[in-house]
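Worked example

This section walks through a single chain of length 130. The input is the sequence exactly as stored; nothing has been trimmed or padded.
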Amino acid sequence: EVQLVESGGGLVQPGGSLRLSCAASGFTFSNYWMYWVRQAPGKGLEWVSGISTIGRTTYYADSVKGRFTISRDNDKKTVYLQMNSLNVEDTALYYCVRLPSAGGTWPPPNSWLMTRVGSWGQGTQVTVSS
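Given that input, the structure is written out below as tokens.
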């Protein structure tokens, strides 16, 4: 059974930093691209970032480019999202996602968000507030 467990969220002031982690189990982690998705209060789901199987290729939404960094440790079966220069618009529930197939694309179809295609963690809350 695929399991994804996010951690690292919390309350941070504007301009601050957080590092999210997603621990994976139940599948061959190194075979799959991994993604971060977020949902801000009252808004839809948004693809935030994606990373290829060995971490050589990364992608970011325009809204976070230059501030967020995705990485992975295949030995630890963990994907990370380093978030710097946080602002109130980054307040959201952040999900770790593995799509059904091993191949990757960016961004994945938005229709996949509505039906939550793939495997999702329970999410970790990030709140940016002064």
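What to look for: The chain has a mean pLDDT of 96.
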